[in-house]
Amino acid sequence: MQADLLNSAHRTRTAHLLQQHAPLVHCMTNDVVQTFTANVLLALGASPAMVIDAGEAAQFSAIASALLVNVGTLTQPRAQAMRAAVDAANRAGTPWTLDPVAVGALSLRSEFCRELVHLHPAAIRGNASEIMALAGASSGGRGVDSTDTAAAALPAAQWLARESGAVVAVSGEVDYITDGQQTLAVHGGSPLMTRVVGTGCALSAVVAACCALPGERLHNVAAACAMMKHAGAQAAEGRGPGSFIPAFVDALHAQHMEVNA
Amino acid sequence: MQADLLNSAHRTRTAHLLQQHAPLVHCMTNDVVQTFTANVLLALGASPAMVIDAGEAAQFSAIASALLVNVGTLTQPRAQAMRAAVDAANRAGTPWTLDPVAVGALSLRSEFCRELVHLHPAAIRGNASEIMALAGASSGGRGVDSTDTAAAALPAAQWLARESGAVVAVSGEVDYITDGQQTLAVHGGSPLMTRVVGTGCALSAVVAACCALPGERLHNVAAACAMMKHAGAQAAEGRGPGSFIPAFVDALHAQHMEVNA
Amino acid sequence: MQADLLNSAHRTRTAHLLQQHAPLVHCMTNDVVQTFTANVLLALGASPAMVIDAGEAAQFSAIASALLVNVGTLTQPRAQAMRAAVDAANRAGTPWTLDPVAVGALSLRSEFCRELVHLHPAAIRGNASEIMALAGASSGGRGVDSTDTAAAALPAAQWLARESGAVVAVSGEVDYITDGQQTLAVHGGSPLMTRVVGTGCALSAVVAACCALPGERLHNVAAACAMMKHAGAQAAEGRGPGSFIPAFVDALHAQHMEVNA
Description:
With 261 residues, chain A is of the alpha/beta class.
């Protein structure tokens, strides 16, 4: 496995670009993580907006800077609205990101995610079990938890990147980000990030935001992973999962504010 | 532009009334802000309840003290349920408040909000872009962000107040509250309030709660704005957006507790 | 009324079992409390997953360790999905827990909950007004607030336990847990727990998780109540409701970590 470390200057540069461009991120995400996702994007200087009616979602993804599709609490009507949004995003040139939450064992989302893979996502972000299941390399993890390491999922991620044209990010103890040719690794973070709901889903939203930035997409997506891991390591210091949450959002905001300093 | 400052005694008096009456606020609001909205109302001594099925919403708005209709994540079934709730509220004499989130560019909510304006809301609370779009004075902001100042929206707010019979609150760096004749201004708050999701939506819920209190509605709505700005200024002191959230709820609760002291 | 105090060793033992078994809890719960519920379960070492499409919910409840059905924001499609999940859970032997939020005055949930009572729940957790309404002993409280004490609801709880076969937990200033024969009492907690949304709903999720553990169900459910009251008392010390929330999750996590020490 060949993976280069992301140069830490990329994280700082991407934080700066996020503030400068303030991308408007259309989030079609699951019920559990909406507030946290919005606050994470706001802390980094991006603008979240959740629009879910099929007609409105199509209107909005055409004017948004980026679109996020997260299937965590998928239903048939939501799948329809997501299809409409992805279609409008593709026609308008809005980059969109897929988070295939718990894909594998559950039928509706698994079929839907396999359909979405062929609709030109800019990025795909999942844990190891999700990326392997989406690539057909396994039947998925136990619900939302990954039962595999990110390194084990790297071949599947690389295959998926080539198949879909997306930058694929596999998050875990180490995050791997690949376009199918080049692969970057991002270290850091904290185990506490897995004891708080929504850190992975919020990362996908930050990935979506970074797909709207100028520059190389592979590096932008890796920088999204690096911003989250950096904040996670800072916030975990001596804290439990409850106090981790506000500290994590503060730490993201500090990266945003450093840009101004 | 003529706007009188709200006398600060009104804020204290309204905090006292909120505790005394503990209004039961039926919140039909968007997916992103439900938890925060509920905790804000609870901190001030009000009782939130979210009931969304059309049949149940009609039953509940008839027995609630107040109803909030927020179109942030509107869908067709939710619009139907909101119609049923507004209709039942009007028949029962329950005052109801409209928060026209992101009205303007998106069709479903824009048509729905224009319909609601004529169904006798007690109050309407929005940012400048939303109030201008609802009054037909502009096509709305960029998603949920306001691109106009509250002062620029004041003529639209005054027109809307006369047209609808509602007290209209335009929130921004300064909040303006008008019944179409008299206009009050509320200063304070913090820029951090715009870096946290749901402060505007939660304000609308507090406005809804205050519409259930005795006394002059214009002053009660302005006091709702003042309670939020007061807590926001206190909570922002030396904090990032993550730690702002619990501090803000604590600061609201402190206003509630001062009443007991 | 005869109620024995829960031996405090049961709380510690159950915290240990939760960590050891890490039950995967399928939460079909209301829109307002999803994030908090997930974070509470994670803090205690359990794994939450929210799956809501009818087809997927049936698939998932068959592989989950436990299922939670909370009717707080019930709609017709959600009731259908919950029916499918309960049916699959019963066929797979997955224990499921009912939280009959605000049952009584509202038609859809009241009929649905009365139907569910006869579908072999492992546990039912509600406040006094909810348990009395579910047992047909009263018409329910004012929305989600209880207007009765837990002690007053004990005869209804005991009857409901015998009628349904479930362990019934009535939470209040004192929690009572009964299987219709034996009754346990759990003291502690803090009034601040009623000024924060979702503590009751999250308790139901912990009850659901504890129904997946080995040992006597009556004691496991009482231990769930005790873990929450213990954390609540610790977190309330000198705090307002905003800062209570992260402190509460930290305090639950501390119970989980003590197990490791």
